[in-house]
């Protein structure tokens, strides 16, 4: 029973960490990757041969 409780608590902590680090709307990792990807696409699209 104790092992199950510890496992559930660890899963909750991991889910909270994911939400605060990766999935945050403005400053999360996903938002930063999307911003840099859009910038790279725009820069590449503006290159002229």
Please supply descriptive tags for the structure shown above.
mainly alpha, rod-shaped, about 0% strand, about 50 residues
Q: Please indicate the percent range of residues in DSSP E strands (runs of 2 or more).
A: under 5%
Number of strands: 0
* N-to-C SSE string, H for helix and E for strand: HH
Work out the radius of gyration.
19 Å
Low-pLDDT stretches are none
Portion in helices: over 70%
Q: Mean pLDDT across all residues, rounded?
A: 89
Instruction: Characterize the biggest β-sheet.
Output: none
Termini separation: 66 Å
Number of helices: 2
Which of globular, elongated, flat, extended, rod-shaped describes the shape?
Answer: rod-shaped
Q: Which class of secondary structure composition applies to the elements?
A: mainly alpha
């Amino acid at each position: 029973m104790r092992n199950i409780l510890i496992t559930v608590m660890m899963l909750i902590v991991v889910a909270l960490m994911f939400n605060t680090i990766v999935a945050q709307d403005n400053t999360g990792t996903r938002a930063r990757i999307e911003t840099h990807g859009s910038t790279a696409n725009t820069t590449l699209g503006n290159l002229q041969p």
